[in-house]
């Protein structure tokens, strides 16, 4: 079997984390979501590795990274610390972090816990945490949409789960089949522990303190409007969480996996923003 020269590992407090590494230059870290792995970003590698060090970690719970089977291993501050350990391992002071789905939650928590390590933040189709904390607890539409997450939160290692249902919103049939195979060959417990520890769920009706859910670095939100897991209300009043500049781009014909659905537009928008960020114009 050929050796993948771009494939590497590091450790964070005894947990082995896998990553792919491409190119040279300022660090740009793409963090994948569920159901997925680090190669979901394959359509971004060539464009951005020309002038950036593109880093694709495989988050804990997703092979070939370690899969700790105790739920506290997936606390948000621990998942964020994996990203800090990755930067330390590669000797970067800071990076631009981009995340979609649960990867978007991880990079948001990183931005709260370790803002000094985040040069800029890119959010692709994931809950904007401050807004979501209100919606999930007080909006019936979002509670209905989020029924899938209750099953994930309550899942225990070894419980049956419908893999076809989980991958159903991946539009590319070839990639959907690839991820289905990956999930069938992987232990699922850590993936669902993440939801238990990080995704807002019942009991609903609570008033959550969101005062700490602000972003102190320049940000861009790139959003596919064909989003199956979040109400459009997630973008209402988005600006109040961002203390520096925030750019919002919406793509009407893309969905939850917009970086794969429409990579040309996504890469173009991200490139414009990165150039402005690195020129000090944001």
UniProtKB/TrEMBL annotation:
Molecular-function GO terms, alphabetical: hydrolase activity
Domain AB hydrolase-1: 26-137
InterPro entries in the record: AB_hydrolase_1, AB_hydrolase_fold, Epox_hydrolase-like
Keyword annotations of the record: Hydrolase
Pfam families: Abhydrolase_1 (PF00561)
Protein name: AB hydrolase-1 domain-containing protein
PANTHER family: EPOXIDE HYDROLASE
Protein species of origin: Trichoderma gamsii
Family: Belongs to the AB hydrolase superfamily. Epoxide hydrolase family.
